[in-house]
């Protein structure tokens, strides 16, 4: 007798009256499709539309976005921004209350004992260099600007320790003059989103600024930085919890499972304190929590 031929699973066997055979194993569930990626050759118009749509979604996600440095006036914001280099806004906010209580004006800080300032700033890291910068800029404010923080970019960048990033933080938030803040979060996200391939901060500023109206620049910076701190982390982005995932070319670099991604969320979305000791009421109303003071357990 001739050996019987094997019949592929799921097809009708000879003499079975056309009835399909049952598969040997149950079919695997179909995974949800990944968000669509923009075309490799994305046109300029498409890029502008996608970038602006991302910003609109982030604005809806973080309607209470704000500078995450505590300050009461332009001088405090300027000093706090200089101190935030290579440390967190949280650490700066925990440190500056003692600094501003002892040296509330540029005149006070310019005439301070450097060793005493260093001791206060020690928790911020690089405290000797930062002491030199904040005392130097205070002296410059007193000698060149009558103790007032200037509201022009060309004047701000002449101050010790003040670059374009710091200047735009001050201009945008203390004077209402638009500027793009290219910090590490901003650089990481705009490159992930393929808004630019540039690595130089000045070139990133120019490339991204060209995608948006100037009036959007300050809040755009807040939206991107907030998203980078809360969801689109450097090492493990929470892709499965990201509101802009369908527009992101880098989707899948991080955790895509929604439940696992939720566990990666930081600050208000994860139930943790934010960066500020004295956040705006809108942030508190949205469920955000103030950070603890320095030394609080």
TrEMBL record:
Cofactors demanded by this protein: [4Fe-4S] cluster
Keyword Nucleotide-binding found: no
InterPro entries: DNA_glycosylase, Endonuclease-III-like_CS2, Endonuclease3_FeS-loop_motif, Endouclease-III_FeS-bd_BS, HhH-GPD_domain, HhH_base_excis_C, HhH_motif, Nth
Stretches assigned to the HhH-GPD domain: 83-230
Region (Disordered): 1-45, 270-297
Residues at which [4Fe-4S] cluster binds: 232, 239, 242, 248
CDD domains named in the record: ENDO3c
GO biological process, one term: base-excision repair, AP site formation
GO molecular function, one term: DNA binding
The family this protein is said to belong to: Belongs to the Nth/MutY family.
Protein name: Endonuclease III
Source organism of this protein record: Streptomyces echinoruber
Gene name for this UniProt entry: nth
């Amino acid at each position: 007798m001739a050996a019987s031929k094997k019949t592929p699973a799921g097809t009708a066997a000879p003499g079975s009256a056309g009835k399909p055979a049952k598969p040997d194993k149950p079919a695997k569930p179909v995974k949800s499709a990944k968000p669509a990626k923009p075309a490799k050759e994305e046109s300029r118009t498409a890029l502008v539309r996608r970038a602006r749509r991302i910003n609109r979604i982030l604005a809806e996600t973080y309607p209470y976005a704000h500078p995450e440095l505590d300050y009461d006036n332009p001088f405090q914001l300027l000093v706090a921004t200089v101190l935030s280099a290579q440390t967190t806004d949280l650490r700066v906010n925990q440190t500056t209350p003692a600094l501003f209580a002892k040296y509330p004006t540029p005149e006070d800080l310019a005439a301070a004992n450097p060793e005493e300032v260093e001791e206060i700033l020690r928790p911020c890291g690089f405290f000797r260099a930062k002491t030199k910068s904040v005392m130097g800029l205070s002296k410059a404010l007193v000698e060149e600007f009558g103790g007032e923080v200037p509201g022009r970019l060309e004047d701000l960048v002449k101050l010790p320790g003040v670059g374009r990033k710091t200047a735009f933080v001050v201009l945008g938030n203390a004077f209402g003059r638009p500027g793009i803040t290219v910090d590490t979060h901003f650089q990481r996200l705009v490159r992930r989103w393929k808004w630019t391939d540039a690595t130089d901060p000045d070139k990133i500023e120019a490339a991204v600024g060209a995608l948006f109206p100037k009036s959007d620049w300050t809040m755009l910076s807040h939206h991107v930085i907030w998203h980078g701190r809360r969801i689109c982390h450097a090492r493990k982005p929470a892709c499965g919890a990201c509101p802009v995932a369908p527009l992101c070319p880098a989707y899948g670099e991080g955790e895509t499972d929604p439940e696992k991604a939720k566990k990666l969320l930081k600050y208000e979305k994860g139930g943790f304190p934010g960066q500020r000791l004295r956040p705006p009421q809108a942030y508190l109303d949205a469920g955000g929590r103030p950070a603890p003071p320095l030394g609080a357990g």
